[in-house]
Specification:
about 325 residues, alpha+beta, four-stranded mixed sheet, about 35% helix
């Protein structure tokens, strides 16, 4: 009887010690509050637990939903780490971020891993299909808003993963489509100044070129016109069908060369404008994307300068 009691006590002690040294899922949250306040509430609670165990490591594992673009999970994990490091002073070495892949619903998991414990492994439940015969929307990012998400997403969180994805497809190129904020007088929302969309697209493009050494011809910057202030990151594939986009209509409202707003002529030959030709950075849209690399590069060398000279002659 005494032997059984001893074994029972040992089992309980072992279980208790194992629970103390095993990785523990502390909390999780979704993306149902777009401005990100929910993230801050959950991270603040997580920080209290992390502070109580100074030798433990925080693991942030993010999963995109089934229909989410592939860059979203990574961006959310990195912006959570940015908040904990930059706003709350946690050592960066104490935080590990993981892109867990996809599940049915978006979720960010906050794990506490003691010093000797095995870290959590991503457990995706969904494998989204990637049609290599079409373009891929890598991420869709809200910018220029005074909220948690925008305050904690730097260029690295938004663009480093995009750069890596582009390098994995050497025949593809990137297209950055940026939209300016359309005003609403009834809600007190002011219009962004003309040219804001193109400026945003070029800023993101410059980061990819100078930080990741992507060739200028491998990244396009496009003024998407006016909508919500959003930046889309597209992986453009040769001879893509354009079933998924990007769809940019030529008769959208956007800035012209003089900086004033104008509505372009409608496209009578096709349902939309395919503007993400390789390396194009001017705001005037191409009717259809060039399908051959040599033609793309030749057009890059010839289209911008003649248009600039033509504009100067009209001014004279």
């Amino acid at each position: 009887m005494k032997l059984l009691l001893c074994f029972g006590l040992l089992f309980l002690v072992f279980g208790f010690l194992n629970a103390q040294t095993a990785a523990r899922l502390i909390d999780s949250y979704d993306d149902k509050i777009p401005s990100g306040e929910k993230e801050q509430w959950h991270l603040e609670d997580f920080l209290k637990v992390l502070a109580a165990e100074p030798n433990a490591t925080a693991y942030i594992v993010a999963y995109g939903a089934r229909e989410d673009p592939p860059g979203k999970a990574r961006r959310f994990a990195l912006r959570a780490k940015h908040y904990m490091v930059e706003m709350r002073g946690i050592e960066p070495s104490r935080i590990v971020t993981l892109d867990g892949g996809h599940r049915e619903a978006f979720v960010v998991e906050l794990w506490l891993v003691p010093k000797s414990a095995r870290p959590p492994e991503p457990r995706p439940t969904v494998t989204p299909s990637d049609d290599l015969g079409d373009n891929l929307l890598y991420d869709n990012i809200e910018v220029g808003y005074e909220n948690f998400g925008d305050a904690n997403e730097d260029d690295a969180a938004r663009l480093d993963g995009f750069a890596l994805a582009l390098k994995k497809e050497p025949k593809a190129w990137g297209c950055i489509v940026a939209y300016a904020m359309a005003g609403n007088d009834q809600m007190g929302i002011t219009w962004d100044t003309p040219g804001t969309g193109l400026k945003l697209a070029r800023e993101h493009r410059d980061y990819l070129i100078y930080k990741h050494h992507l060739r200028p011809a491998a990244v396009s910057a496009v003024d998407g016109g006016y909508a919500d202030r959003v930046v889309e990151l597209w992986i453009m594939r040769p001879n893509a069908r354009f079933d998924k986009g990007p769809f940019l209509y030529p008769d959208r409202l956007r800035a012209n060369r003089n900086g004033t707003l104008t509505i372009g002529k409608s496209d009578t030959k096709g349902i939309c404008c395919k503007a993400c030709a390789r390396g194009q950075t001017h705001r005037h849209m191409l009717k259809y994307a060039n399908r051959h690399r040599a033609h793309n590069e030749r057009r890059n060398r010839t289209i911008v300068e003649p248009e600039r000279r033509k504009g100067l002659s009209h001014q004279a």
